[in-house]
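sanity check this chain:
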Amino acid sequence: MARFCLQLNAGIGRNLAMASTKENGGERKSSSNIERVELPENVKTSRILILGGTGRVGGSTALALKKFCPHLRIVIGGRNRDKGAAMVSKLGNSTEFVEVDISDSNSLEKALKGVDLVVHTAGPFQQAEKCTVLEAAIQNKIAYLDVCDDTSYAQRAKSYMNRAMDANVPAITTGGIYPGVSNVMAAELVCAAKSDDNCVPERLRFYYYTAGSGGAGPTILSTSFLLLGEEVVAYNKGEKIKLKPYSGMLNIDFGIGIGKKDVFLLNLPEVRSVHEVLGVPTVSARFGTAPFFWNWGMVAMTYLLPAETLRDRSKVQQLVDLFDPLVRAVDGIAGQRVSMRVDLDYSDGRSRIGIFSHKKLSESVGISTAAFALSILEGSTKPGVWFPEEPEGIAVEARETLLRRAAQGTINFIMNKAPWMVETDPKELGFGIYD
């Protein structure tokens, strides 16, 4: 297995690590030119229900799936018929809309009839008391995927493991861009490190950046504000520690197309899952946005507003309603780019990183989510509820394919490189040695 991991990572380095900029001689395919995927005959016309399909994330997932596999039958699930009709018109043939309220068990049960895979994008997932959609999928023996970005929800989803296995239902939680693709990148970095008998993974850090709302609209605002009300869970040498949200600022280089950005600690589910699944003793996650004053505002909120207010969904929604028009206006200036950098430090002092940057968050999360959906349809996921980095969730041999598909339209995507090889201004110490 170690040898295979090494060969797989070398393949990724050879086929996917080229940054898609003029400086290095080429551009990656745009999202409008997504490569076609030939699914096996028994699943190529699968019926996929996308809950939250009239939203930006769900809608972009539906569009990406149709471009990957035109034969798939897409069902847009939502509460607004007019928006649903508009999305069906955009998607074209083999598409339909179903009115559904996921909080109503009868409505959800009706929407799930005749479905092969349900993709749950109807966030935010913070403070949801039940995994209603996952439970319904298991009861109806339907494959499941969500884009959850909440630690509590993800752990609650994992508690359905035995029920999913007994029902022979494959399910992935946290399967979007981050968490999701970032988890798979982490798994590949750790896999490559462990293939060297003298190398032990010691510290893994997730860094995320989104310009403005990233084109994802009010959902990302709601998620961000709710996360400000949560203590940050991180791990230091195997010990679980709790930190203040939006603290611990670092200035991180996201490479070509993004540059250096300030990022801050947030409580994100991939920290716990990667620590437990991949066995890395020190793990943390940080996030930053632009323009810079949005970061100042987020820091100020953690000091000026009580944590109880930031944990109250109704009060957070009032904040979203207040700030959303301003964020949309600033998006036109700041742009909507998104980037993530995953750093793995070895016990011998070496480091390897992966970088994934895209021009628009909603588009990228749609392509990434679609890549996970295709992996499930192709049989990569075993019965049970899995995180993306678990080999039962995305098989080791399927990771390269998933990353290649998710990287459609990226402006920069590299894997398993030394930091100095990809940063915008590495420091030369002399004699060809860089820091």
The first strand starts at residue 47 and ends at 51. The chain has 16 helices and 18 strands.
